[in-house]
Design goal:
Elements lengths: L12 H5 L3 H8 L5 E6 L6 H12 L4 E7 L4 E6 L5 H10 L5 E3 L1 H8 L2 H28 L4 H22 L1 H12 L6 H20 L7 H24 L3 H8 L3 E6 L2 E6 L8 E4 L8 E6 L2 E4 L1 H4 L5 E3 L4 E2 L4 E2 L4 E7 L5 H16 L5 H28 L2 H14 L3 H20 L2 E3 L4 H5 L4 E5 H5 L5 E2 L7 H11 L5 H12 L8 E6 L3 E6 L2 E6 L1 H4 L7 E7 L5 E6 L6 H10 L3 E5 L4 H11 L3 E3 L4 H13 L4 E4 L6 H6 L2 E5 L4 H6 L2 E3 L6 H35 L5 H19 L4
C-alpha cells in the first residue's frame, strides 16, 4: 500500500500538541560531553599537571581534565558549548602554551594490534612452557616406560598447538623471506622450532627416552619476549606524520552570505572566506582579505618575532593569529595545506630512514645460510655414515639449536639497553632501536637556532638604560598586549619591582602595538615604523611618550645552558658543525660568530631545511640534526639520526630518534662518545657469538650434544653477551 492510499490517523488536539515518546526520549537523553585534546609542549613536571588540571576544572562546564605528562597532552571533557580556543586561553593565562589536536585521528592511530598480538602469544607460550617443564621434571626424576610415554604425549598435546599458535610471527616472516628466495633471521629460528618439535613428536611415537618439547617451547618463549620488547621500543616512536596530521586545525569558521558557520575543515574549499579570531591557529592556507594583525610563524618557520599581516598577506595553516581578527580567502585546505605537505615530507623521510640495515640484520644475511648448510651437512653426513635416520636427525636439530641466533639477536639489544640506561642518567632518552648505531657513524651536526641552541624566549637587555618613569609607562602598555616582546618587557619590569603607571584608554592596534593616555599625553608601544623610528639590527620594541622621540627596548635570546661547551667539543672531535634557522640573518650570523660556527644559513623554510640535510646526505655525509620546531620536523626525519629537546612539540619529539630531557646541551658530546663505545661492544658481542659457534658447532657436529644440551649452551652464550653489554654501565 502506498503512502497516498493509507488512511490518515486521527488524533485529538491534546495528543497532537503533546510531544511524542521518541521526542521525550531525546529530550531526556543526557547531553554527551565534548572531548577536547590539547598538546602541552611546555609541561614538564608534576606541578605542571596540577596547575593545568586545577585551572581547567575551575572553568564552568568542564567535567574532567587529565594531563598525560609523557605524551605532553591534556584530555578535556566539557559541555559542547566549550571550544578548544576557550581552553587554550585559560592555559595561556597561567603561562602554558597549548595547541589543539584532532582527537579522532589520535584515537584512530592509537590502537596497537601487533603489540597485543605478540603479548598474547607470549603469554600462551609462557603458560605452556611452565606446564611442560613440570612434566619434564617427573621424567628427569626417573619416570620410565608407560609413565614416561604418557607424560611425553601430554607434553605433545600442550606444546604442539602452542607452537603452531605462538610461533606464527617467526613462521610468517620466514615464509615471506623464502617466498622471494631470501634468508632472514627468522628462517633458522623457525627451522629450529619446527625440527625440535618434530623430533620430539617422532621420539614420542617411537617410545624414545628423550623428547625436547620444553626446548622448542623455550626457544619460542624467549624469542617472542625479545620480539615484543623490540616492538615496544619501536612503538614509542609513533609516526611523526600522524602527529602532524593530528595537529591540523579540525574546524574553521566559514563566512557564508555574511554569516559565520563553524564547519569541519573538509567542508572548506578554495575561494571560501574563513574568519580567524585572535589567538587561533590558521586552519587553511590563504590570503588576508580583511583585517590587520600580527602572526606568529615560529611553529612553521622558526621566526622568533611575529610579523605584520594585512590585506594581501599570504598565511599558512598552523601559523597563529595574535592580535586582531583576520578574514582569509582560502588558497589551500585540508590535504593541500602547507602543514599537510610538511606531514608528507616527514612520511617520505621516515620511510627512507627505515631502510637503514642494522648490524644484526647484516650479520644475519651471512649467518643464516651458514647455519642451514651446516645442519644439512650434519644430517647427510651422519645418515651416510651410520644409516640411522633418527641419530642423523638428532644431530641436525642439535646443530640448528646450538647455532640458533639468540646470541646474535641479543648482541645489539643488550648493548643498546645498557647504553640507553647510561645516557638516560645524563638526560638523553633513546627512542629508536638503531639510533645508537647510526649516531656512532655521524660526521656532521646540523643545529637549529631558536629553542635549540638558544632558549627561544626574548629577554630585555637594556632595562637599566631607561629611567623609572619610562619603565612604568612601558610596563603599563606591555601588560595590555600578548605580543612576545611585550610579555618579555612586562616580565622584566615585574621582576625589577617596577609599578605600572596609570595609563588609561588602553587599546591594542592589531599589527602595530598598544596605545593609551597618560597624564594627558598619547603613549604608544610597538613597531618602529608605527612610531616613526628607524629599526636597527637588534630585536626591539619602541616606546613614545607624547611628542618625545621614541626610545628603544632591545632584547636578546640567551644561549641554552651548555651550548658553547657542546659545540666546542664537537668541533674538537673533528665533526663539522652547521647552523640553519628560519630567523633573520643578523641574529643567526651573531650566534654563529659567538659559537665559532663557520657555516650558517638564515631565513630557511621547512622544505629548505629538509633539502639542505638531504644534500649533505647525498654527498655521503652522516648528518645528526638537532632541532625543536615544527619547521624542523621534516629535516629531523630526513637526517641520518636526530635529537630534539623535551620542550619541543609532540610531533617534533616523535620525529626524532633521541630526546634530551634537561635544558643543558653539555651531554651531547658525551652521547656521541657513548654511541661509539656501544658500537665497539656490539662488535665484541658478534665476536663472542662467532667464538661460541667455533667451539660449540664442532661438538654438535660430532654428535656429542643432544638438542637439550644444545639449548643450554645457547642460553649460556646469550648470558655471556648480556654480561659484556653491561660493561657499558
Amino acid at each position: 500500500m502506498t503512502a497516498a492510499m493509507r488512511p490518515a490517523t486521527s488524533a485529538c488536539p491534546a495528543c497532537s500538541a503533546a510531544p511524542s515518546a521518541e521526542a521525550l526520549a531525546r529530550m531526556n537523553e543526557p547531553v554527551k560531553p565534548a572531548r577536547i585534546m590539547l598538546s602541552l609542549p611546555t609541561a614538564h613536571c608534576a606541578a605542571c599537571i596540577s596547575a593545568v588540571e586545577r585551572r581547567l576544572l575551575q572553568y564552568p562546564g568542564v567535567s574532567e581534565a587529565r594531563v598525560n605528562l609523557s605524551l605532553k597532552r591534556v584530555s578535556i571533557e566539557a559541555i559542547p558549548e566549550i571550544t578548544a580556543e576557550d581552553m587554550i586561553r585559560e592555559l595561556d593565562a597561567i603561562g602554558y602554551e597549548a595547541h589543539e589536536l584532532d582527537a579522532g585521528i589520535l584515537a584512530a592511530t592509537a590502537t596497537d594490534k601487533r603489540g597485543r598480538d605478540l603479548l598474547m602469544r607470549l603469554a600462551v607460550a609462557g603458560f605452556s612452557l611452565m606446564n611442560v617443564m613440570l612434566l619434564s621434571v617427573a621424567i628427569w626424576a626417573g619416570a620410565a616406560d608407560a609413565t614416561r610415554d604418557l607424560f611425553h604425549w601430554i607434553s605433545a598435546l600442550i606444546a604442539l598447538p602452542t607452537i603452531v599458535f605462538s610461533a606464527q610471527p617467526f613462521f610468517k616472516n620466514a615464509w615471506s623471506a623464502l617466498s622471494v628466495r631470501h634468508l632472514n633471521m627468522d628462517v633458522p629460528i623457525s627451522l629450529a622450532i619446527i625440527l625440535a618439535a618434530g623430533l620430539s613428536l617422532f621420539e614420542t611415537i617411537q617410545g624414545g627416552e628423550a623428547a625436547y618439547f620444553d626446548a622448542a617451547l623455550s626457544l619460542t618463549f624467549f624469542l617472542l619476549a625479545g620480539r615484543y620488547l623490540d616492538h615496544r621500543t619501536r612503538a614509542v616512536a609513533r609516526s611523526a606524520a600522524e602527529e602532524l596530521s593530528a595537529l591540523e586545525v579540525p574546524r574553521a569558521i566559514k563566512i557564508v552570505d555574511g554569516k559565520q558557520q563553524t564547519v569541519p575543515i573538509g567542508e572548506v574549499c578554495v575561494g571560501d572566506l574563513v574568519l580567524v579570531k585572535p589567538g587561533a591557529r590558521m586552519p587553511v592556507d590563504g590570503v588576508v582579505s580583511e583585517g590587520q594583525s600580527e602572526i606568529d610563524r615560529s611553529l612553521l618557520t622558526g621566526e622568533t618575532l611575529p610579523v605584520f599581516a594585512g590585506p594581501g598577506t599570504e598565511v599558512s595553516a598552523g601559523e597563529v593569529n595574535l592580535t586582531g581578527p583576520l578574514t582569509l580567502r582560502v588558497t589551500a585546505a585540508g590535504g593541500d595545506s602547507s602543514l599537510h605537505r610538511m606531514a608528507d615530507l616527514v612520511a617520505i623521510a621516515e620511510s627512507s630512514k627505515n631502510r637503514y640495515t642494522s648490524l644484526a640484520d647484516r650479520a644475519a644475511q651471512i649467518y643464516a645460510p651458514g647455519v642451514h648448510l651446516l645442519a644439512f651437512l650434519a644430517f647427510g653426513g651422519w645418515l651416510m655414515a651410520t644409516g640411522d635416520f633418527r641419530l642423523a636427525l638428532n644431530v641436525a636439530v642439535a646443530v640448528l639449536i646450538i647455532t640458533c641466533p639468540c646470541a646474535l639477536g641479543l648482541a645489539v639489544p643488550a648493548v643498546t639497553t645498557a647504553a640507553s640506561g647510561r645516557l638516560f642518567k645524563k638526560g638523553m632518552l633513546i627512542k629508536n632501536a638503531t639510533a645508537l648505531e647510526r649516531l656512532a657513524e655521524v660526521d656532521s651536526v646540523v643545529f637549529d637556532k631558536t629553542g635549540t641552541l638558544t632558549a627561544g624566549m626574548p629577554e630585555l637587555s637594556n632595562l637599566e638604560a631607561h629611567d623609572a618613569e619610562t619603565l612604568r609607562v612601558a610596563f603599563a602598555l606591555a601588560e595590555a598586549s600578548a605580543h612576545p616582546l611585550a610579555l618579555a618587557l612586562a616580565s622584566a619590569a615585574r621582576s625589577a619591582g617596577i609599578e605600572p603607571a596609570r595609563v588609561t584608554e588602553l587599546r591594542e592596534i592589531p599589527g602595530y602595538g598598544v596605545r593609551g593616555h597618560w597624564q594627558g599625553r598619547d603613549v604608544r608601544l610597538g613597531r618602529a615604523a608605527w612610531l616613526g623610528a628607524e629599526a636597527g639590527p637588534e630585536t626591539a620594541t619602541w616606546l613614545q611618550i607624547g611628542a618625545a622621540p621614541p626610545v628603544e627596548f632591545t632584547f636578546n635570546d640567551h644561549l641554552r645552558d651548555g651550548a658553547e661547551e657542546a659545540v666546542a667539543r664537537l668541533i674538537a672531535q673533528g665533526i663539522s658543525v652547521y647552523l640553519m634557522s628560519g630567523d633573520a640573518e643578523p641574529a643567526v650570523a651573531s650566534l654563529a660568530s659567538r659559537l665559532k660556527i663557520d657555516t650558517f644559513q638564515a631565513e630557511m623554510l621547512p622544505e629548505q631545511k629538509s633539502d639542505f640535510v638531504k644534500r649533505l646526505s647525498d654527498g655521503g655525509v652522516k648528518v645528526l640534526m638537532v632541532g625543536d620546531g615544527l619547521n624542523d620536523t621534516a629535516a629531523l626525519t630526513a637526517a641520518y639520526v636526530s635529537i630534539s629537546p623535551a620542550t619541543a612539540l609532540e610531533a617534533t619529539r616523535v620525529a626524532s630518534d633521541i630526546v634530551f630531557l634537561g635544558s643543558d646541551l653539555t651531554p651531547l658530546g658525551e652521547t656521541l662518545a657513548t654511541a661509539q663505545k656501544a658500537r665497539s661492544r656490539i662488535r665484541e658481542n658478534f665476536g663472542i657469538a662467532v667464538l661460541y659457534n667455533m667451539i660449540a658447532v664442532p661438538i654438535a657436529l660430532s654428535g656429542f650434544a643432544t638438542p637439550l644440551a644444545a639449548a643450554l649452551a645457547m642460553s649460556a652464550s646469550s648470558i655471556t653477551v648480556s654480561l659484556n653489554a653491561l660493561r657499558l654501565r
